[in-house]
Amino acid sequence: MRFPAPLIPATLVRRYKRFLADVALPDGIVVTAHVANPGSMLGLAAPGVRVWLSRSDKPGRKLPWSWELVEVDLGAGLELVGVNTAHPNGIVAAAILAGQLPALAGYPGLRREVRYGAASRCDLLLEGPGRPPCWVEIKSVTLMRRPGLAEFPDARTTRGSRHLDELAGRVAAGERAVMLFLVQIGSAARFDIARDIDPAYGLAFDRAQAAGVEAIAHRCAVTLDGIAVAGPVPVAAP
């Protein structure tokens, strides 16, 4: 995924109400940007950090600015982290179509936002002749409390636990189900569940794996030009 226009640097003043952030532009003017991230953004939202914004001139849009990246030191020196959770589904879909995710290769059909379970939409449904459907849920990962170790979630998520149980239901129906953790941190070397933050999610993850749901993680290369899948990282065993 490439950003359609050059990003604008700014300084974070504060993040509030989850989806809003006040930022100071290079000329000193403070504007409010949309934050497309429902998590806590632990370690990424300290006042004074350098952030990067995109701007939309779409008529009728209330907030033209969107927070895309943050520049922080997570133990390997300053690096860019992608914080916009609206991007991962498109990033993964593009990587699958380009043959960059071997674990999800061999499916000529790809659909997005397909209804499944009690009241959910699966991020991707992969289909191919002679193969059972493959349901793929994608989680954006931006938490790193120890150098190299990416973790999810960064806040309690009952919705995330429900998704895991619904994926297990697809396996019980004879289909394939994959939980894909997309780490928007280039220095990530491994992945684990943040069980101390959400014990219920940890239990749901264990249930899903025991039921046959596959868990894979990939890190991204994050630059001012765009974000792309860079390679797999190992998922810690339960």
Quick one: how many beta strands?
A: 15
Low-confidence stretches: none
Give the SSE order as H and E letters. Answer: EEEEEEHEEEEEHEEHEE
Q: Helical region count?
A: 3
- Kindly, what is the distance between the CA atoms of the first and last residues, rounded to a whole number of angstroms? 32 Å
Rg measurement, Å: 18 Å
Helical amount: 10-25%
Strand order of the largest sheet: 3-2-1-4-5-6
| Strand residue content | 35-45%
Give the biggest sheet. Answer: 6 strands, antiparallel
Which structural class matches the secondary elements? alpha+beta
Mean pLDDT: 95
Shape: globular
How would you summarize the topology of this molecule?
Blueprint: E1 8-16, E2 20-24, E3 30-34, E4 50-55, E5 65-73, E6 78-82, H1 88-97, E7 109-116, E8 120-127, E9 134-141, E10 143-146, E11 149-152, H2 158-172, E12 176-183, E13 190-193, H3 199-211, E14 214-222, E15 227-233
Parallel strand pairs: 9-12, 11-13, 12-14
Antiparallel strand pairs: 1-2, 1-4, 2-3, 4-5, 5-6, 7-8, 8-9, 10-11, 14-15
Helix pairs in contact: 2-3
Organism: Rhodoplanes serenus
Domain Sugar fermentation stimulation protein C-terminal: 87-224
GO molecular function, one term: DNA binding
